[in-house]
Amino acid sequence: MTSSPHLNPPSPARFPVVVVGAGPAGLTVGNILRAAGVDCLVLEAESREFIQQRPRAGVIEEWAVRGLEQRGLGGRLLERAERHSVCEFRFEGRGYRLPYQELTGRHHWIYPQPLLVTDLVREYADVRGGEIRFGVRDVRLHDMDSDRPTVSYTDPETGERQLVHCDFVAGCDGARGAARAALPPWARTSRHDYGIGWLALLAEAPPSADCVLFGMHAGGFAGHMPRSPEVTRYYLQCPPGDDPDNWPEARVWAELQQRLRAAGRPPLTEGPLLEKRVLDMHNYVVEPMVFGRLFLAGDAAHLVAPIAAKGMNLALNDAFLLGDALVAHLAKGDSRGLDGYSGACLRRVWDYQEFSEWLSEIYHGISHDDPYRAGTTLARLRRLFSSPLAAAAFAEQYLGTAGGY
Predict the structure, then answer these.
(1) In whole angstroms, how far apart are CA 385 and each of 18, 220, 260, 332, 366?
(2) Maximum Cα interatomic distance, the chain, rounded to a whole number of Å
(3) Would you say 57 and 113 are in contact if contact means Cβ atoms under 8 Å apart?
């Protein structure tokens, strides 16, 4: 880990907790701390406007919404989010609906991450009076393995280096941020590359169905994810590293119509594309998630490809556990939550990793020009719609309710 910077500012700042990164994980931790009267500082490299518009996931599992609501953070979400209770698989030219709420009593909420971030930053900065610095540069963590950790950064307005003393750092700034840069050499990162890409699309077009659609096709996977009455998220399987310019709108819509076609279902409603980017599908996990006084959360600790729509939910789970554990330690001297943080998080992380890998084979097994993989994939799909037990097991994992968390 980085050693002490030996800076001597006139009046070094001090906060019990410094949170690096203002995404869902960092802002949720900050809000939990402020609600308990614990001072903290959030540092974010981007502007407030940028993080409130950055395109990201939109599926939130019911347990995560309950967690936000319990901490006073779910009001606007519950007012505006869409509730989903069924999904539809399309393969062999037919559509098969899976009513997961009937099977489990649970549902999903659709609420784009930019809206959640907007809610969280408003609550943290404007309502709960939390300290936050936007646009900071060259954030560095120092002495994380000591009882006197510090964080330094460059102030974007003055260009001066600032030093902050703290007791703990919550590293919530993703895979390329300061938290990951501060990890010791013995930290272990496990990675899995799927060898495929997804063309991520945002279309100014109303949803073409009342639920999420998964299209398994010899030409590649396709996905339809409603985001609002006017906007729909689509995915198209493509080669990893593909150039989005290889996908003009006419080609995009032709492939989507073909891969998501099903007997008795209307064609997709088309519209202008607002976003077009290629995502290379991969997962990673950092173990442990605690290094001295540094606690990782969200994408700084793990990534799940959008195959199973789990990323934001894992980030919120980390934030709930970390925020509550920090409050228990700082306000009550109870360190059990901090001591067990990494193990508690990783149980759900690895469960979601396994489900993502299993679901990837369902999505992509037909499109590899391998008749054996295609045959076994179709067998799995047919089992979902012929065995109530198989359907219920899928629904539990899809909703994040399996495993007795």
Answers:
(1) 49, 21, 18, 51, 17
(2) 72
(3) yes
Task: Specify the DSSP element, H or E, that contains 23.
Answer: none
Burial of 215 from C-beta contacts in 10 A (0-12 / 13-18 / 19+): buried
Cα–Cα dist 394/384, whole Å: 8
Distance CA 2, CA 229 (A): 48
Secondary element (H or E) of residue 91: strand 87-91
Q: What is the pLDDT of residues 289-315, one digit of tens each?
A: 999 999 999 999 999 999 988 999 999
Helices and strands, counts by H and E, the chain: 13, 19
What is the phi-psi region of residue 195: left when phi exceeds 0, alpha when psi lies from -120 to 50, beta otherwise? Answer: left
Identify whether the C-beta of residue 365 lies closer than 8 Å to the C-beta of residue 373. yes
| Residue 274, CA distances (Å) to 36, 183, 200, 227, 245 in order | 41, 37, 11, 13, 14
| Confidence check: pLDDT of 156 > 70 | yes
Q: Is the pLDDT of residue 136 over 60?
A: yes
**Pairwise CA distance, residues 164 & 149, whole Å:** 9
Rounded-to-integer distance, Cα 58 and Cα 81, Å: 10
Task: Say how far apart CA 287 and CA 308 lie, in whole Å.
Answer: 22
Interacting residues of 329 by C-beta distance below 8 A, sequence separation 6+: 335, 337, 338
CB atoms within 10 A of CB 403: 12
Question: Using alpha carbons only, what angle is made at residue 378 by residues 376 and 379, rounded to the nearest 5 degrees?
Answer: 60
41: left (phi over 0), alpha (psi -120 to 50) or beta: beta
Instruction: Inform me whether the pLDDT recorded for 268 exceeds 80.
Output: yes
